[in-house]
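Quick start: what a row looks like.
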Amino acid sequence: MKTIIHVCLAIACLLTIHAGTSFGQAAQGNLSTTLQQSQQAGKFTFIVFYRDNSPQTQKMLQAVQQTVANRGQQMTMGVASVSSPDGQAMAEQFNVTRAPMPITVAVAPNGAVTGLFPRQVAKANLDAAVVSPVMMECMKQLQDQKLVFVCLTQSEQAAVPAGVRALELDPQFKDRMALVALNVQNTAEARLMQQIKVDANQVQGPYAALIAPPGVLVGHFNGTSSAEQIAAAIHKAGQCCEDPNCKHAASAQASQSTPTRR
């Protein structure tokens, strides 16, 4: 069974201002430098892209400022005018040039986009965009178009199912796979556990949940799952290659568009 992971996942994939600074006072600087500094500090960066100084822009800026002010240890922010060359270039980098403005883009310390909020944003949106380390890594790999195997374990030492290891030798998949370890006892990752539909009691040995771009849960695999079985699930999900004309992709799309009969 497939499902879309309900996380603040942005498909595609900054200049710091102090909380309390008004829109008119916010001076633009080197956004790349700001992002780099935020990443080094382990902070999430919220970039407000805008086209004009409208009330909607003012409202979004204020919402982001207030949230960042209360969570300064985890967050920083920046603003960018898409009317300026630098702002336009940054908007292109995050693939938001055609997005409704203003828009806030949440960027994790590892470079993953964890949220896109056009036109308006609430504190709850910004809080939800601050994701756990393993979820952050999964989102980064998905945005790099990788098949993400979340290898679950009951301890700090991850165990990879033999079928997944064997699949790494398959030329069709080896360069498209990413393995991410997750300790099911880590309460900080409870949200991700819920999203990939795994109960800690299920994990009694090598166990992996496979997520495919943009956030499709392909399935769960244990120590008895063969490489062939995993490959078949990937094919069925239409994730076997990047060819839009692939017969497996077409079949998967048709399956998703067909109403379920009860």
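That is the whole record. The radius of gyration is 20 Å. The beta strands are 3-4, 44-50, 75-81, 103-107, 113-118, 147-153, 177-183, 207-212, 216-222.
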